Amino acid sequence: MLLEFDADQKLWQETVRDAVSKQCPASLIRDIAENGADATPLWNSYLDAGWTELTDPENAVELAIVLEELGRATDPTPFLATLTQFAPLVGDRYDSSVAGTAVYSGVTANRDAQGWVLSGTDRFVLDGDRADRLAVVTPAGVFCVDPRADSANVTTRRVDVFDPVLHVAEVSFAGTQVSDSDRLLVDTERARHVALMGMAVTMVGACQRILDLVLEHAKSRQQFGVAIGTFQAVQHKATDMFVAIERARALSYFAALTIAADDPRRRLAAAMAKASAGECQSLVFRHGVQLFGAMGFTWENDLQFALKRAKAGELMLGGAAEHRAMIAEEYREMV
């Protein structure tokens, strides 16, 4: 199992990075945050480029490359939810032209004469307010639901979160009627591994953006007649940030490799990736704000968007402490 990109993957990374830098600049993110600009044209550009077709497990590394670059750019589209949360749960029901997301908890399914009835609420669904399809995980199986159908009885409400670009919603099902054909028998465990990997590598991209901005600032900001980047204390913190990001990146891509190879280690690898990304964002967030000084707290500084995206990733799908505990328990059972 190689941990280095091959020539095709390096070319893919360069292609994606170039496209994202042009189509999703910092000015667009600020315009969305301040003026509510529409992100649909950007989403359509991903559709046109074929990025939403990266659902085959064998393409997990290529998908991770895209997600890292989108995390670095604070992507405002439903790409993350669609490709890493919805697609792995619906299998061949997936339509690459349709945005979707997963409802992981709070919903039950009960049998009736017509099929199944879904009831309950999930308070924090990524992109739940703008998804065209929902993959609803219940104890009775996964159900694919069109929330916009007249008979769906599904209500969605976007909730306020500290990341002004991120869409998180409360999704409620009030006796939603679904048929047996809407019930999917899928491997939810494997789907969760993809979701964890996707969130982890997105956080890595956001942390990389923080470091990029810090290094740029350290080279230009002067104190006592020299750039602050020449000070040893600044260099030490920047180095700590770099090491944390590289560790989290390595574990995230290892998780992607285990998914691509259907390696049984993927459960641990995905948890390790999410735990490492969570620890990484904690250190990078702290050092990033400190090295920017008072400027790091201002709305005018684009640093805020990457900081908030990295922190939001830690709060979704379980934090570092939860995944470290799971890893420890797993190893304890092995010995």
UniProtKB/TrEMBL annotation:
Ranges for domain Acyl-CoA dehydrogenase/oxidase C-terminal: 197-330
A Pfam family annotated for this UniProt entry: Acyl-CoA_dh_1
GO MF annotations, alphabetized: acyl-CoA dehydrogenase activity; flavin adenine dinucleotide binding
Superkingdom of the organism of origin: Bacteria
Keyword line: FAD, Flavoprotein, Oxidoreductase
Record bears the keyword Ribonucleoprotein: no
Stored InterPro entries: Acyl-CoA_Oxase/DH_mid-dom_sf (IPR046373), AcylCo_DH-like_C (IPR036250), AcylCo_DH/oxidase_C (IPR009075), AcylCoA_DH/ox_N_sf (IPR037069), AcylCoA_DH/oxidase_NM_dom_sf (IPR009100)
Required cofactor names: FAD
PANTHER family: ACYL-COA DEHYDROGENASE (PTHR43884), ACYL-COA DEHYDROGENASE FADE28 (PTHR43884:SF20)
UniProt family annotation: Belongs to the acyl-CoA dehydrogenase family.
Name of the protein: Acyl-CoA dehydrogenase domain protein
Organism in which the protein naturally occurs: Mycolicibacterium vanbaalenii (strain DSM 7251 / JCM 13017 / BCRC 16820 / KCTC 9966 / NRRL B-24157 / PYR-1) (Mycobacterium vanbaalenii)
UniProt lineage: Bacteria, Bacillati, Actinomycetota, Actinomycetes, Mycobacteriales
